[in-house]
Amino acid sequence: MVRSFFAGLLRLLDGLRKVLHLILLLVIFGFVVGALRTSIPKLPATAALVIEPQGELVEQLSGDALDRAIAEARGTGTSETLVRDLLDVLRAAAKDDRIKSVVLKLDSMRGGGQPTLDELARGLVEFRKSGKKVIAQGTAFSRDSYYVAAHADEIYVDPLGLVVLEGYERYTNYFKAALDRFGVDVNVYRVGSYKSAVEPFLRQDMSPEDREESRAYLAAVWKSYVAAVARARGKPVSAIEQYVAGFSSALETSKGDGAQVAVAAGLVTAARAPIEVEERVIELVGEDEDTGSYLSVSLADYLRVVRAEDALHRESENRVGVIVAAGEILDGPQPAGTIGGETTASLIRRARLDDGVKALLLRIDSPGGSVLASEQIYRELNAFKATGRPYVVSMGDVAASGGYYIAAPADEIWASPATITGSIGIFAAFPTFDRALDKLGVSTDGVGTAPLSGAFRLDRPVGPDAGRLLQSTIERGYEEFLARVGQGRKRTREQVDAVAQGRVWAGEDAVRAGLVDRLGTFDDAVRSAAKRAALVDGKYDVDYLEPDLSWTQQLALSVEAGGVRLLGRLAAGSRAALAEQALATLTPVQREMARLSRMRTANRLYAYCFCSVN
To answer: Please, are residues 359 and 387 in contact by the beta-carbon 8 Å criterion?
Structure first.
């Protein structure tokens, strides 16, 4: 009886296993079929295009395509919105008779660099030239979200909200005391009196040089912000400055009614609840009888329509090739959101071998990184230039250190007034842990056959011979950097050195320093590249060159669009959300420790700018 019972139980479990496998296969098959089915949303005859950016506005989505899809499905991915997608839908919507208005919902937008925000703002201005209205709404507006909203026709803030223009700051964590406590020494070798990238590991406060340059470029970026907002709202710069300076007092006087403070200052059209904003949009585009709200199409759905139409109309054999170089510059192949020496060099090589690419534009948004990877990219760019085709650079939020290294050979460099660039300097840094081991009672001893034997072990202090080797290497690297810039900018070594020394410049100052040629947008740079290639306006395509996706990655992205994100979010627990919040708090420290860990190799040189603007 016992044997029969267990035999029957095993048969039952085996049958259950087969049923579960069948269900799993059917689910996977359903997702695959849904993902591979090409469906283009049907738009209403009249609609408002709803643009609701998620997370940070970026030049390039971070990470491997497959990893992004999985992370999004699990609800753990970092939310980002590609600014290129927003600009493409705005251009299309301006010409689309079905789209009568754009509604900006900005509560979920975490911001972005001012140059990136400005690209979106200019897209909104161009859309408004079609005679269609842009309506911006938000529970509250911060510095970055208001920069975008300021370029709308009408701005509505929730009656319980406010508009806070907090300015820009640069506060950095310094780790010297903590490293000393743990017995860790960070050995640094650098050239450039303003090269402050390694100071968090050497000091407990900001150096006078870093404070000087930070004040200068932050002031330039803030000046650009205030001027842009004032221009967008049709107000004098002084009115915006007075609002910022007197905000706390005005809020106190109004007994905390921040919405009315913004209305009184003319920063918003009115204080309205979301349902009241809906009624306003219904007046413009009509009512959706099914939902009782206004007729609308989402950004995701409209983008699918735009991409499908672009694919049908892409016919020109003449192209301006665009490569986005966004993130830290690292050795070898790297995923999107970072700049891999091998990955980016291979894209440039693809452009060089493609006769249809008549000009190359590199869109740089990078604080720099590995000198070796930067040099690898630099060499490929020179190989492209040797074909006689123009190479143009458009700088985004940051194009400094290694980011400037790869910009230097360009025929023309464009930047925004708020772009952070320069920081021409080099350093090497790596930690040693002999003091930490000593605290644990662990010592290191032995013999070597030459002065450099064991000189770069992490458990021994750096000897004098190793120190001289590294400093000499750094100084040579700096001279090479100056030579690269001098050759590209057609300047002498002394002229470049005068504006180098690791100093950071904002866009307008960079033009005066001769590091940038023109101030303008990405589109301005594209048109300039086309003109240099003698391409007639309207007779060329803009071709984004990106690494080819594997079949698995393409499928994952398609499945994500087909609904896996919803299932993943339903499965995600609250503990994951709490963990994400806790990690976000430690992000600045984690980021610096990650950078330090990448410097553990003693023979690596870095052209890096820790010049964040917050």
So the answer is: no
State how far the Cα of 206 lies from the Cα of 86, in Å rounded to an integer.
38
Report the C-alpha gap between 44 and 98 in whole angstroms. 7
Reported confidence tier of residue 11, pLDDT bands at 50, 70, 90: confident
For helices 464-489 and 371-385, what crossing angle results, to 10°?
A: 30
133 is catalytic: no
Which among 381, 318, 231, 376 has a CA at the least distance from the CA of 526? 318
Enumerate long-range contacts of 339-346, CB under 8 Å, 24 or more apart.
Answer: 339/366, 339/369, 339/373, 339/377, 340/373, 341/370, 341/372, 341/373, 341/374, 341/376, 341/377, 342/376, 343/547, 344/377, 344/380, 345/376, 345/377, 345/379, 345/380, 346/547
Which entry of 145, 370, 401, 416 is annotated as an active-site residue?
Answer: 401
- Read off the pLDDT band of 275 (50, 70, 90): very high
- Specify the pTM: 0.84
Hey, is 295 helix, strand or coil? coil
What three-state secondary structure class fits 100?
strand
- Kindly name the residue from 195, 214, 423, 558 that is annotated as catalytic: 195
Is residue 195 part of the annotated active site? The answer reads yes
